[in-house]
Design brief:
By secondary structure, the protein is mainly alpha-helical. It has helices at 2-35, 47-82, 94-115, 125-147. The relative contact order is 0.12.
C-alpha cells in the first residue's frame, strides 16, 4: 500500500503541475494578446493645423532672436555707460550677466507667447531650451560684434 500512496501522490503532483502549466500558458496568451493590440494612430493634421504650427514656429524663432539682439544692445549700452571698459557691467561677473539675460528673456517669452496666441502651455522642455538657446546665442553674438 505504501507504493500506491506514492503513486497517487505523484498523480496529484502531476495534476497540480498540469494546472500550473495551463495557468501560465493562459497568462502568456493574455499577455501576447495585450501586446498585439494595435496602437491607435494619431489623427492626421489638417492643412490649417499645419499652417498654424508653421507660423507659430517662425514667430517663436523670430521673437527669441529679436529678444537676443535687444539684450545684446542693452548690455552694450549699459556697459558703455557704467564701466571703465565696454565689456564690464559694473562689478558683476560674466556668469551673473549670463544668468540675468536667461532669466529676463525666459520671463518675457512666457508672458509674450500667450499674448501672441501661441500655446505656451503645450511647450515641453525641448521647446523652452530651443527658444532660450536662440535668445542667448544672439545676445552673445550681438554683444561681441558691438564690442569689436
Amino acid at each position: 500500500m505504501a507504493k500506491k500512496e506514492k503513486k497517487s501522490g505523484r498523480k496529484d503532483e502531476r495534476g497540480l503541475a498540469a494546472e500550473q502549466s495551463r495557468m501560465t500558458a493562459q497568462k502568456e496568451t493574455e499577455n501576447k494578446a495585450k501586446k498585439e493590440l494595435p496602437k491607435p494612430r494619431p489623427k492626421p493634421k489638417t492643412a490649417a493645423d499645419r499652417k498654424k504650427d508653421r507660423r507659430d514656429g517662425i514667430v517663436k524663432t523670430v521673437f527669441a532672436a529679436a529678444l537676443g539682439v535687444l539684450a545684446g544692445f542693452a548690455c552694450y549700452y549699459i556697459a558703455s555707460t557704467t564701466g571703465e571698459n565696454p565689456w564690464e557691467i559694473g562689478e558683476f561677473p560674466w556668469h551673473f550677466i549670463l544668468l540675468s539675460v536667461i532669466l529676463v528673456t525666459s520671463l518675457l517669452q512666457r508672458v509674450a507667447y500667450p499674448l501672441m496666441k501661441i500655446d505656451a502651455a503645450s511647450f515641453k522642455t525641448k521647446d523652452w531650451l530651443y527658444v532660450e538657446f536662440i535668445a542667448v546665442d544672439l545676445w552673445l553674438v550681438t554683444w561681441t560684434i558691438l564690442l569689436n
